Every structure is written in structure tokens, then in C-alpha cells.
Amino acid sequence: MDEEYDVIVLGTGLTECILSGLLSVEGKKVLHMDRNDYYGGDGASLNLTQLYRKFRSDQPPPTALGRDRDYAVDLIPKFIITSGELTKILVHTDVTRYLEFKQIAGSFVYRDGKISKVPSTEMEAVKSPLMGLFEKRRAKKFFEFLQGWKDDDPATHQGIDLDKDSMETVYEKFGLEPGTQDFIGHAMALYLDDDYITKSARPTYDRIILYTSSMARYGKSPYIYPLYGLGELPQSFARLSAIYGGTYMLDKPVHEIVTDQNGIFVGVRSGDETVKAKQVIGDPSYFVASQEAEGGKLRVLEDGKVIRAICILKHPIPGTDDSDSVQIIIPQNQVNRRNGTHYLIHETIRSRKLSPGLQLLGPIFEKFVTVSPLYTSVSTGEVDNIFITRSYDATSHFETVVEDVQDVWKRVMGKDLVLKKREVEAEA
């Protein structure tokens, strides 16, 4: 390969595909490579045969499960928050034209041994068993305070400084019970643990406002989901990249990250071929494999693990009003865990045991379990032109993915990511 590119992108996870799409729109000459013959990388959506091939070797799926094409099983389940940053990127790039979405039927929270629906209307809030009558009044005042907050109007602050006061101080001001704090922190602010309570209240305020504004957008729940699985998302951004001249190579192994004598990135070797570029962006697994194969420079470190279980059921989850799609959140205090747990029928936690969530599902027809390492880059990439994205974390949404996109973009381009509304081409 004699051709030289501005950027080589390794892996077709969502983070990498968003970046390749946006870089192509920016006018960069992009080559995108993936060792797999499908899009999505670790976050792919698999049909039934692919799922059993991955987890059960050559065992075919049971005929009782029906047809292959009826399944799109996400290896890393996450939802899209309707007012979140990913939605903004989808809309601004017009990638929504390639996708169909489904709204999630409801969000549930585990408390005192049972699950209850997170209220989506005022009537549901009045009837909800999550809080008693007096606690509902206190919670109402708390939410009115958040909704009425204006940075430039001290009359709305009620003596609170969101940037200096902790969330614990805010909870105490409104006299909210520990169970209500659990509900707010984990089911609405979507924190995985309770570390946020002693920190500045501002990030929690932002998260709750994002949740409530997303809920108000469509009602029922604040989440949407690609109708044919999360694998549709990276494919759509790959299509965006291709429209602007991006080149894609699937089923292309990566054997070496080539650098010069000063450790500066030069190119990527696949077999006997080396393709050159000024910069490389890739998911951590490519650099783990490269450093192991070469015995070379350490570029990523393992920073924890995420255990995920994919369960196939033949019935709706008990206690969810026969909902066809749900999120169930189990706050850490309810099961004496260090980390909170978020369940999307798939179970996603940073712990050794999966039992609290699995017990809520009823009879399980089939279960597939993975343990995924979380990798962190050891450098920013500005010196050697090697930019490494983050592993998918245990959150149940894509906000941290977009944070990673924005962070990598700034390091690659030397400026903040500003979304540009692109012109819509006429379909052929």
C-alpha cells in the first residue's frame, strides 16, 4: 500500500466510527480497519448463530429459539438518552436517516426485595410505592428546586451553591431519606456508586436535568434504542465516513503499530503490507495485542473488569407489567455492593457476582457470561500520534462514549469538537 492517509482508525466500535465519520466530514483522508468481518467490535450485535459460535464454539443454536434473523443480541447493552450528547451527534450529522428507533417501555428500580417503576408521569409519582406521602412532598420540593434553578438568579438558589456544596448537603437540606437518595442517584442520575454524594452537586444536577428533560421529550421512559440492535449505530457512522471519502477494510488483521526510531507513529502493518498515515486512533484491544506481539512499548493498562451476562428468556420479566423492553437498576445499598448495578435484561456490573439481577428474571433459558477488561491509555497521544480510546464502561448509556469522542477529537485536532450541520444529499 503506497497510499498515505491522514488518519488510520482501528476497530469499528461506536467511538471509533463516530470519530472516523466526523473526521471524514472535516476533510481528513481516513482509512478504517477492523480484524472482524462485521461492524461494532466488542459492541457488535449478533444473530443467533453468531452468538452461539462466539460463546459455544461449534454448537448450533437450539431450534426452539426460532430464526436467526429474528435476533440482534448486543454484546455490550446500552441505551440512548433522548436529550443526551449522542442524540445531538446523530441529529447534527443526519445519521438518523439510516436508523429506526424504538422507545424503551420503562425504567425500574430495585428496593426492599422488589422492583418498582420509575415514575414517568405525575399520576405514577403519586401512586408510586417508592416513597411515602410526606417523603413525596419533600421530593417534590427538591425537584422543583432543581427545575427552577437559574445560575444568574440567587433567589432560586435557596442558600445552595451547586459548585461548592456537596450533593449530601443538598439532600440534607430537603430532608430526603436514604432510599430516596438511592433512587435519585442511581435511577435518575445513573451513578454506578455513591462516590458522587460527597462531591460537588453540579454534575448530579446536570444529570438529573438531563434525565427529566429526556423523560419529558417522549414520556414513558427517557431511553430510545436502535430497532435492529446497537450494531446499527457504528454502521451508520461508517456510512457517513464513506460518503465523505473514508475507506473501510473489514476482516483485516493488525499485526504491528509501526513507529520510527523516536517512537513516532508511522503506519500499521497487516501481514506483509504496511499502510502509512500521520495519526492512528484505535480501541485499546489493538494496542494490547500489538504490545504483546512485539514485546514493545506499554501503551495501555488494565483498570478493572466488567462482567456481563446475556440471558435469553421465554417470558416477560416478572413485575414489569409485561413490558417488552426495560431497564432495571439495583442501587448498591440494596445488595450491599460497592458498585451499583444496571440491568437491561442484559446485566452489566463491575463485580464478581451476578445473582441479584438474575434472580429477578425468572426462569432463564440460556445464559452467556463475559468478563471484559477495562483499559486506560498511558499517554495522551500528542507526542507519538497514537490516540487510544477507552473501553466500554459499565454505564447503561452512551454519555461516557461521547465524552471519549470529544476528548480524543480535541487531542487529535487540537480544538474542541463543534458539530456542524451537514448538507443532506439526495438519495439515488
TrEMBL record:
InterPro entries, alphabetized: FAD/NAD-bd_sf, GDP_dissociation_inhibitor, RabGDI
Gene Ontology MF terms in the entry: Rab GDP-dissociation inhibitor activity
Superkingdom, taxonomy of origin: Eukaryota
GO biological process, one term: protein transport
Entry-linked SUPFAM superfamilies: FAD-linked reductases, C-terminal domain, FAD/NAD(P)-binding domain
A GO CC annotation given for this chain: cytoplasm
Gene3D superfamilies tied to this protein: FAD/NAD(P)-binding domain, Guanine Nucleotide Dissociation Inhibitor, domain 1, Guanine Nucleotide Dissociation Inhibitor, domain 2
Signal peptide interval: none
Family to which the UniProt record says this protein belongs: Belongs to the Rab GDI family.
Protein name per UniProt: Rab GDP dissociation inhibitor
Native source species: Boletus edulis BED1
